[in-house]
Amino acid sequence: MPLERSFDIAPELSEASVKSAKALSLVEEELRDCEEQYRTVLDEVKDCAIFTLDPHGLIGSWDAGAERLKGYK
């Protein structure tokens, strides 16, 4: 005769979902803070041209220092 168990996993799943949502929210907040700090650093750099290139060598971003030093918007 098989042994049968009856248990309700809904509360555990609900609790796990809440914890997961809270963790995701914290990670998103940390990412926003990091991006804000990155933007602040880029905005404060005046004597350097900072830009990114994509894998094909095309410019992906161009900061104000690059505009000023290179003369291109």
From the structure above, extract its key features.
73 residues, mainly alpha, 58% helix, 2 helices, single chain
For the largest beta sheet, what order do the strands appear in spatially? 1-2
User: What's the N-to-C terminus distance?
Assistant: 78 Å
Number of domain units: 1
Sheet of most strands: 2 strands, antiparallel
Taking all Cα atoms into account, the compactness measure Rg is 25 Å
Percent helix among the residues?
A: 55-70%
For the secondary structure, the number of strands is 2
Which geometry do the CA atoms define?
elongated
Helix-strand sequence: HEEH
Mean pLDDT: 83
Number of helices: 2
Strand content: 5-15%
Q: Any overview of this molecule?
A:
This protein has one domain (14-70). It is built from 2 helices and 2 strands, in the order H-E-E-H. The mean pLDDT is 83. A hairpin with a 5-residue loop joins strand 1 (51-53) and strand 2 (59-62). With 73 residues, the protein is mostly helical. The longest helix has 35 residues, at 10-44. A two-stranded antiparallel ribbon has the order 1-2. It starts with 9 loop residues before the first helix and ends with a helix.
Describe how the helices and strands are arranged.
Elements (H helix, E strand, L loop, with lengths): L9 H35 L6 E3 L5 E4 L1 H7 L3
Antiparallel strand pairs: 1-2
In brief, what are we looking at here?
This protein has two helices and two strands; from the N terminus they run αββα. By secondary structure, it is mostly helical.
